[in-house]
Amino acid sequence: MTFFRIFLVTIIAVVGVYTAIVIANHGMGLYPIFFGDMGDMTWRGQFNLDFLCFLIMSGVWVAWRHAFSATGLVLGFAAFNLGAPFLAAYLLVESYRNNGDSAAILLGKARAANRR
User: Fold this and answer.
1) How far apart are CA 106 and CA 98, in angstroms?
2) pLDDT of 21-52, one tens digit each?
3) Could you tell me which of 111, 101, 15 has the C-alpha nearest to residue 61?
4) Any idea what the Cα angle at residue 59 is, between residues 58 and 64, rounded to 5°?
């Protein structure tokens, strides 16, 4: 679990710094570029579509983990919009909240307890 947590912190730091540099150099205009590339039907657009699917899966998983409660929907929306840094922070927090129990981290405490 220690290496996993280090990995999560690394993701938060690397993507956070990279994002700050991109924002400083290019501003906050992500969505028009992101969806414009998909509309152009290029490899960049293909990558963006693939990444969009990962973001959707991340958001749905977080919402599902919280039984699609209001909190789960808000967290799922955040996971979809904030990407890897949010998901890494979320998993880091959950790794501590669940004392490193991987089943509880992935399923939530209630579902993990029902499996035993």
Assistant:
1) 10
2) 999 999 998 899 999 999 999 999 999 999 99
3) 111
4) 100
**Within a 10 A sphere around the Cβ of 110, how many other Cβ atoms?**
10
Closest CA to 16 of 77, 111, 89, 72: 89
- In single-letter form, the type of residue at position 88 comes to A
Tell me if 79 sits within 8 A of 62, measured CB to CB: yes
> What is the pTM for the complete model shown?
0.90
- pLDDT tens digit string along 57-86? 999 999 999 999 999 999 999 999 999 999
Contact 45, 39 (CB under 8 A): yes
Among candidate residues 21, 51, 20, the one with its CA nearest the CA of residue 34? 51
Residue 59 CA to chain centroid, in angstroms?
7
Please, what sign has the CA dihedral across residues 52, 75, 16, 84? negative
